[in-house]
Every structure is written in C-alpha cells, then in structure tokens.
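Q: Predict the assembly, please.
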Amino acid sequence: MDVPGDTYSTPDAAEGLTALRERIGDCQRCALGATRTKLVFGAGDPRARLMFIGEAPGRNEDLKGEPFVGAAGQLLDELLASIGLARSDVYIANILKCRPPGNRDPLPAETEECTPFLEEQVRVIDPVVIATLGNHATHFILETQRPIGALRGRLFHHRGRCIVPIFHPAAALYDRSKAEVLFDDFKRLKAVLDRVAENGRPCADGDQPKLF
Ligand code: SF4
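A: Predicted assembly structure:
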C-alpha cells in the first residue's frame, strides 16, 4: 500500500519524515480526524536501527501529540533503559496516528486509511529491527491474526527486516505478571540487536519463525 502522491526518495531520513508529516497535515482521511486533539506522528531517531510500533495514541498522547507519554510510556522507558537504550536511540510510531475515542481498538477502515503513512515511515527510516507492541501492530506487520501470546518470544524475518513481537507495555499496567515477561522479551530484543551489530542486516525475506 502506498501513500497517495509522491514518495520520499531523499537519502536524508529526517527530511523524508518532515516531508511526510507535512503531507499528512490536518488529516481527515478517517473519522478520527474529527475527534483527536493532536495527531501523533511518531518520535525518535530518523535513522534508528530499531523501530517500535504500537497501536494508537491514548489520552495523554492525544493531549501532547507524542507517542507513549503516559504510564505505558514510563514503562517503555524502563524497558529501554534495561537494555542500555534511550528513546533518542530508537523510533516510536503507532498503527493509528489519532486516538480512537475511549481507547477502543482501531477499526479496520481506520487501519486501512492510516497505515500507508506508517509504511512510508518504515520505508524512510529503514530500520533493521521492528519491535511490534501488542496484537494490532503485530497482526499488521506480520500479516497474521495469531495472538501476541503465541508470537512473543520469537524472531520473525519478514520483508528483509527482523520482527520481534512483544506485549504492549499497557498490558503490564493491568497484569503485573506481564511486566516480567516484557523485561525478558527486551533481553531477547537486545540479543537480536547485538546480532545485527555483528552481522549487519541478517534478516532475509520470508517468514521464518525461530525461537531464540
Ligand atoms: S487516524 Fe490516520 S487516517 Fe485517520 S485522521 Fe488520523 S492521521 Fe488521518
């Protein structure tokens, strides 16, 4: 799926993201444009090797226009710190750029309208590793409907990138047993990043699930 209009073939990722943000503008492609406070484009290093993809902005993100600024964001910061990373080392975006009312799940039509923007972000940033947070991001990126509980803890090679499905940090706010699992999954994510640092871009096309 392509973003309508031009693509951004500039070698400068920051310029590419700025151009994409300008094109999105005051987007009203789906009904969420009418109910959002602020559009949440994404944040982080435009040339990050690791990109996180979450579900959609929540109340705090909608107010501030930044991803993961609430309690789930605080946990994400702790998880990043546990593997020696900060937000400035990674890029964070969501499947939807506007908040669904009441934090309900994204509707298929909303996902269809909004994800061309995410796909363009991925193309411009060109991360080696994508960590998908929760069911919606994992289903979209891996083109599957299998539950996150069956996919986390595994490394997938898909469209030339390493995909690491992880529980959404918000899940641990309601179920503390998931926090331990999240920290374990970040250790596995670190192992993938170390492998990337040693071998460059190790993930080939195809979908090759592997326990590690
Ligand atoms: S969710 Fe995406 S498609 Fe819908 S209005 Fe917001 S930016 Fe546009």
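Residues 24, 27-30, 32-33, 39, 96-98, 110, 113-114 surround iron/sulfur cluster (CB under 6 Å). The chain has one domain: 13-211.
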